[in-house]
Amino acid sequence: ERSFLKPNIHYDVIGKSGVLNLSQSIKKDIDLWSSYKNKWSIKLPSNIPLQLYINTATYSG
Question: What pTM did the predictor assign?
């Protein structure tokens, strides 16, 4: 079973703002009830600092 969290993240980089598409997948290992694999996927140009403020997220699963 796989579930997805997709936060709605707004960013501002050098005066240009927009919405950052950041996805997180959480996969539970069915053999170990307390084991979760948590992975965040994000792509940004090199040498750009990023600070995230996550306000909302949609959940399906």
Answer: 0.22
